[in-house]
């Protein structure tokens, strides 16, 4: 559902962006989001959220994860089921990728076409 993270900060030389770095344990994430730990685990099983893991397997949630959980909470409150939420999140991710590609193509076209004055 969400684009996979490129490596675990504990086991990889890849250093994720600050917003992607898993820093919150499940209890802190539960407090921050108002979502119970069991529900967080359910969302993970359903593929709606993918926290990073420490070398010992402990879940670590990032700022991006917390924002995603807030979006999930809004969709649940609107009456969307978990399958629908997964599809919405997938489409939003794909849309963001396409928008970035479109912006890049526009930039390339602008750099190729001389200004007409």
Automatic annotation (TrEMBL):
Q: Which UniProt keywords apply?
A: DNA-binding
**What's a Pfam family this protein contains?**
MerR_1
Q: Does the keyword field hold Plastid?
A: no
- Write down the InterPro entries for this protein, in alphabetical order: DNA-bd_dom_put_sf, MerR-type_HTH_dom, MerR_fam
| A GO term, aspect molecular function | DNA-binding transcription factor activity
Task: Give the SUPFAM superfamilies listed for this entry.
Answer: Putative DNA-binding domain
Query: Do you know which Gene3D superfamilies this protein is assigned to?
Result: 1.10.1660.10
Domain (HTH merR-type) spans 23-91
Kindly provide the name given to this protein in its UniProt entry.
Helix-turn-helix transcriptional regulator
Protein's organism: Rhodococcus opacus
**Highest classification ranks of the organism:** Bacteria, Bacillati, Actinomycetota, Actinomycetes, Mycobacteriales
